[in-house]
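To illustrate the input format used throughout this study, we show a single complete record. The first block contains the structure-token representation of the backbone; no residue identities are included at this stage. The design step must infer an amino acid for every position from geometry alone.
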């Protein structure tokens, strides 16, 4: 029997990480998961995801921080790794204003540590999770050919730096690199700071929702299971490519709120807050490259995805209601 390829996934206990690990396992890979369990959001959610993953065959987990190169060495030495899918990052555009230094150490230094150890242990494939936040000010729908030289948040700036570092290691050492620019990922088990999570919980609690701006801003909401499928498809050798993963069907925030109300059978009142300077007004992905190179297309409509997300959220209220949440 052929040996299963080993894929190492930093950020395995995270939102996208959890779903990507499940997709890798479904497709016959062995997965080595890493996570440092930082306190960006309530760690009980990460523990919940990890407890589910630990029930899976062919999954091994290490508590490790990509910022600490010495912690990575014994893991790579022990496991003959075919590919690294880096989903470990400091996320959140607004939060990056509060502590930009930690975004630099994780999103830049951490990526450098991973690339350097891939070079040392001759790992052939590296996938980097990046962001649609890089397209601020660009013409929609955003294509990968657009210049992304004017990031408007520390978060976006660190992701741009990571992309450039990944290209350097491809050019110098021949590492096959796919950069994936994700567009507003949502779904069950998402981060408590994400808008849909806050909206669902507020409606569940019978409270008004906080909306930044007038709600007319639009997002290319993309279901997390579709993102996971695209991420695993990106294991394909490409040399070096930047590829958008989005739904190609932007919705206004108010439309998403209406779908949540419909799924929950409730109505809500909105408290409008000032629109943040670091936020993008609208996003819309051109996904032609994902279709052509990866053979990938999103399968889940926003209506279907919101329904699944609400069902999970309501079913887990016995502990979700106590999670620490931030705006």
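Output of the design step:
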């Amino acid at each position: 029997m052929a040996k299963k390829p080993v894929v190492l996934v930093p950020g395995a206990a995270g939102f996208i990480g959890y779903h990507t690990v499940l997709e890798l396992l479904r497709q016959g890979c062995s997965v080595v998961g890493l996570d440092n369990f930082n306190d960006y959001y309530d760690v009980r959610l990460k523990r919940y995801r990890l407890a589910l993953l630990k029930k899976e065959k062919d999954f091994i987990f290490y508590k490790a921080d990509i910022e600490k190169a010495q912690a990575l060495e014994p893991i790579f030495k022990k496991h003959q790794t075919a590919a690294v899918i880096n989903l470990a990052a400091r996320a959140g555009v607004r939060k990056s204003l509060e502590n930009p230094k930690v975004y630099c150490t994780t999103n830049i230094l951490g990526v450098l540590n991973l690339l350097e150890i891939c070079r040392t242990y001759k790992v052939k494939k590296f996938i980097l999770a990046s962001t649609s936040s890089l397209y601020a000010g660009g013409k929609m729908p955003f294509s990968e050919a657009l210049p992304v030289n004017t990031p408007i948040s520390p978060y976006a700036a660190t992701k741009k730096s990571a992309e450039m570092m990944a290209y350097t290691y491809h050019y110098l050492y021949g590492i096959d690199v796919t950069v994936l620019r994700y567009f507003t990922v949502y779904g069950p088990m998402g981060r408590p700071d994400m808008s849909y999570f806050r909206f669902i919980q507020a409606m569940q609690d019978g409270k008004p929702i906080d909306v930044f701006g007038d709600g007319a801003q639009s997002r290319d909401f993309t279901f997390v299971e579709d993102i996971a499928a695209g991420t695993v498809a990106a294991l394909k050798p490409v040399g070096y490519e930047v590829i958008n993963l989005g739904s190609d069907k932007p919705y206004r925030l108010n439309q998403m709120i209406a779908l949540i109300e419909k799924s929950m059978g409730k109505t809500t009142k909105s408290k409008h807050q000032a629109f943040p300077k670091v936020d993008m007004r609208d996003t819309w992905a051109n996904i032609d490259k994902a279709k052509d190179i990866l053979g990938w297309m999103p399968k889940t409509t926003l209506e279907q995805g919101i329904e699944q997300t609400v069902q999970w959220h309501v079913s887990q209220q016995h502990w979700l209601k106590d999670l620490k949440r931030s705006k």
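Structural context for interpreting the output: The longest strand covers residues 125-131. The chain has a mean pLDDT of 94.
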